[in-house]
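Quick note —
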Amino acid sequence: MGKFFETIKNIWSIKELKERILFTMLMLFVYRLGSFIVLPGVNSRALEQAISNNTGNDLLSLINTFTGGAFNQAAIFALGIMPYITASIIVQLLGFAVPYFQKLQQKEGESGRKKLTQITRILTVFITLVQGGGYLTWLSTQPNAVHASLNPTIFWFSNIVILSTGTLFAMWMGEKITDKGIGNGVSLLITIGIIATLPRSFATEVISQFSGSPFFLIIELAAFFFVVLATVLVVQGVRKIPIQFAKKMVGRSNANIPAAGARDYIPLKVNASGVMPIIFAQAIMFLPMTIISYVSKNNAPSDFLLKLGDWQSMPYNVIFFFLVVIFTYVYTALLVNPQQYAEYLKRQNAFIPGIKPGKQTQEYIDNLTTRVTLPGSIFLGIISILPAIVAVFGVNQGFALFFGGTSLLILVAVVLDTLQQIESYLLMRKYDGLVKSGRIKGRSGMQTIGAGM
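Predicted structure written out below.
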């Protein structure tokens, strides 16, 4: 405990770090405050009652988790930062497929990144308008959620402006946190939304289990601990490919000087794709909900479609698991380019021991990446369906969402990334780090959510 207080004292003694932490806390407080300001014309109590009467395990609960409850409260930050995330993902995918975006991403340096940021912001506005319109339409379908005396046109126009402004303001806060705060701003906004629902879900779970079987609660918490531990190991796990630099003569000297150090390694991450496969798979799994909304107007949807809209059903989880595994391979193939590695090693006069430079090096890295990605993709698939698995054993729906999926991966990755930045400040000022031995590894080299993160 003494070590902990000493570390806090050291953190607070660094003026720049203290100012960054306080600025970050202020921005997060403003973001959370906006999550409780209800849109004009919305009856929040009636909306809460309508949602509580809906006993279906629909995927809207996942969106509500990411926004910290703002979605179900019809707050000005109901859409949160998600439209910006969607825009970032689209721009990032265009960087893989469209030559113009590839040029901006890889060859134009800082000016290219500024153009991509501007394109992402503009795209965010259009996505917010579309998602905001869909959200207001959904609100109108909830019994007594919208005051009947309001003019529908005025209600729609005014609130679409407010929702768009809220998302853009959240985007601005995220960028400011990245520049003047600590950690990645956009990631922290998502994280604070996820964490906001954790205490209530955890308290509900503890109360319900204590009234039933306290022994099951102990097993549940132990399982949760090991799941988090395994997630940390996979997020940080790398397969190191040893490389050696060829030595070269300097003048007439007999001394051999390595080109850039005698030995090094290429780190291949076990989970190079991060949370992207789960996000893509969830986007596809939202399609059945859209189909249901149109089919139900005329005819009753089939049982299979209804099960695809339930994240606890067997068909949903089987399809979801295979989609995550497939997208993990696809996204890793887009991120890890063995040809670029081989060309880079050749330019640096380096080689992998026992492997010939050129095509053989490319094939070796490609085969190794495929083998490393297999356990990573399976683990990611298991994590994605773990909430449904633990829900079967009696864990309440709110707390089950923290047992896996995007929520857990984001929490682990963002916490590690933020702690790594704090530790860097401490080590630069000759203080001890946050751990007794070694160093905290963040997401350096790990693909985050979207280009802006």
